[in-house]
Specification:
With 493 residues, the protein is of the alpha/beta class. Helices cover 30% and strands 17% of the residues. The chain has two domains: 12-143 and 343-488, FAD/NAD(P)-binding domain (3-Layer(bba) Sandwich); 152-211 and 272-338, FAD/NAD(P)-binding domain (3-Layer(bba) Sandwich), CATH 3.50.50.60. A five-stranded mixed beta sheet has the order 1-7-6-5-19, with no helix packed on it. The chain has a five-stranded parallel beta sheet with strand order 4-3-2-8-20, with helices on one face. Bound molecules: 3-acetylpyridine adenine dinucleotide. 3-acetylpyridine adenine dinucleotide (N01) binds at residues 58-61, 141, 147, 149, 179-185, 202, 204-205, 292, 315, 339-342, 451, 453.
Length: 493
């Protein structure tokens, strides 16, 4: 099918209705740009918080940091919000900021091609849309990674990935295996340990864990925040300053003392594991922060339950009724949960992006993603990212990062629309930016010797490798137009 639907077109087309895409829509409306459409592959807003519904799912960033700074929420139930509460927050935001009429659900974008004047966008249905500007707000953790283990397809019982949870998955009284020990596993394991007859946790690499409690927020405090919103604003600002000056700086190599404190706290949490042999098997052999730290005061207690066992020998194969490990053991199971993470380096892919002179984003990024300040790519005119590659998402609230980046994208969109021009960063400015970033990456804890989803295929972290304060400052600058290639358009949509 090749049809162009005029009424569905928008001058700006946003891909994704998670935190970043909704934010982009809000800021466009604020600027008086109402001719935009948000194409969402799913059937509702929420992004990762719509997709991740496994038992125990929640945020490990404090609630008051995990919402828009202009829409602070006095009603969070806990210090760290449950996943469904965040999804409902985003539904509410979509209503409050009048985004409903812009949303197109079940509309995955499969390709977008620069015509020389605008973008020709193809949806999975075959429908074509035209847009002057495309904003990719597709997120980083949206494509589940399935392990390549011999026999996985032979398993007779239910196999479910945490990011594609099926509510009907049987758990009560079942023998359940969880593969993986990252944040998702550390949330699902304590949530189901009391329901299953036996739980086997398959660990390939132990994680550093910080024991963090998640108390409920009292009714009177919520009422006070509702009456005095200034309290929330202070709390948001103070927390941001504290977290960025300590934790965020530590991970990029600017605060060795904080890292030392984190290591002492993680070792202290580990000491709560009573059995010395189990403790030894749970002790990571790399620096805390190299892989993403897990925040939980429930994971170690769950692992010490009599009906839970840790299997830390390599998985050699899966049979119809269990998992074989390298020590020759067969672990009998009824249900298998894959907490094996995401293909975090896909970004907009498998969508095909074809820029100026027919250049393919995949070719441009053959070695590694190349971006200008995480928001734009050379030779991709009027194509912008929110939370693109090399964003500071390992040491900063992604919501905060999205706000800074949308703030930087807005002047580019405004100029492109007002002056009818195509804007992309120059090769030179981008190359200089990337060189600085990759050089700084060597100092970060993420490069200190471990495997993680932060690392690109060349082993370099695809994260902003300097202080998040610097990222914020770079993005807050007025655009230096000499860093951009700006071309007049003849036939502007
Ligand atoms: O995924 P992960 P996740 N055989 O990649 C193991 C965010 N998040 O979904 O470490 C055996 O961290 C793998 O082993 P190894 C958060 O940013 C946020 O848990 O590679 N094991 C690892 O243990 C987080 O960092 C929230 O050796 C295999 C695990 O699977 C990110 O999502 C909540 C394997 C994957 O861990 C990803 O977390 C949840 C195999 N073949 C998640 N393949 C919030 O609260 C993989 N593994 C905001």
């Amino acid at each position: 099918m090749d049809q162009t639907t005029a009424d569905a077109n928008g001058r700006v087309l946003i891909i994704g209705a998670g935190f970043s895409g909704l934010l982009m829509g809000i800021k466009l409306r604020e600027a008086g740009i109402t001719d935009f459409v948000i194409c969402e592959k799913g059937d509702s807003v929420g992004g990762t918080w719509r997709d991740n519904t496994y038992p125990g799912v929640g945020c490990d960033i404090p609630s008051q940091q995990y919402c828009y700074s202009f829409a602070l929420n006095p009603d969070w139930s806990h210090r760290f919000s449950p996943g469904d509460e965040i999804r409902r927050y985003l539904e509410d935001v979509a209503d409050r900021f009048h985004l409903r009429s812009h949303l197109r659900f079940n509309s995955p974008v499969v390709a977008t091609e620069w015509t020389g004047n605008d973008w020709n966008v193809t949806l999975a249905s075959g429908e074509r849309l035209r847009a002057a500007i495309v904003v990719a707000a597709t997120g980083v953790l949206h494509q589940p990674a399935y392990p390549n283990i011999p026999g996985l397809d032979q398993f007779a019982g239910p196999v479910v990935h945490t990011a594609r949870w099926k509510p009907e998955t049987p758990l009560d009284g079942m023998r359940v295996g969880v593969i993986g020990t990252g944040t998702s596993a550390a949330q699902v394991v304590p949530a189901i340990a009391g329901r299953v007859s036996h739980l086997t946790v398959f660990q390939r690499t132990p994680n550093w864990i910080l024991s963090v409690a998640n108390p409920a927020i009292s009714g009177w405090w919520r009422a006070l925040n509702r009456r005095v919103p200034l309290l929330m604003r202070w709390s948001h600002a103070l927390h941001f300053q504290f977290q960025t000056r300590t934790w965020s700086e530590a991970l990029v190599g600017n605060s060795p003392f904080t890292l030392w404190v984190v290591e002492q706290l993680a070792r202290s949490a580990l000491r709560s594991v009573r059995d010395p042999e189990l403790r030894r098997r749970l002790t990571p052999q790399y620096r805390p922060g190299c892989k993403r730290i897990v925040f939980s005061n429930r994971y170690y207690p769950a692992l010490q339950r009599p009906n839970v066992s840790l299997a830390d020998e390599a998985i050699t194969g899966i049979t119809p009724n269990g998992v074989h490990t390298a020590d020759g053991q067969h672990h009998p199971l009824d249900v298998l949960i894959l907490a094996t993470g995401f293909r975090s380096h896909e970004y907009v892919r498998p969508m095909r992006v074809t820029g100026a002179d027919g250049i393919d984003l995949d070719d441009l990024w053959a070695e590694r993603p190349i971006v200008w300040r995480s928001i734009a790519v050379p030779r991709m005119p009027n194509f912008f990212f929110v939370v693109g590659p090399y964003s500071p998402i390992a040491n900063q609230s992604v919501v905060q990062v999205a706000e800074w980046q949308v703030g930087a994208v807005m002047p580019l969109i405004r100029r492109a629309l007002e002056e009818r021009v195509a804007i992309s960063p120059t090769d030179g400015a981008t190359a200089q930016y990337m060189t600085d970033l990759l050089h700084a990456a060597k100092r970060t804890v993420w490069s200190s010797g471990c495997q993680s989803w932060f690392l690109g295929k060349d082993g370099v972290p695809e994260l902003y490798s300097r202080s998040p304060f610097r990222h914020r400052a770079e993005l807050a600058e007025r655009p230096r137009w000499s860093d951009y290639d700006i071309r007049p358009l003849t036939d502007f949509h």
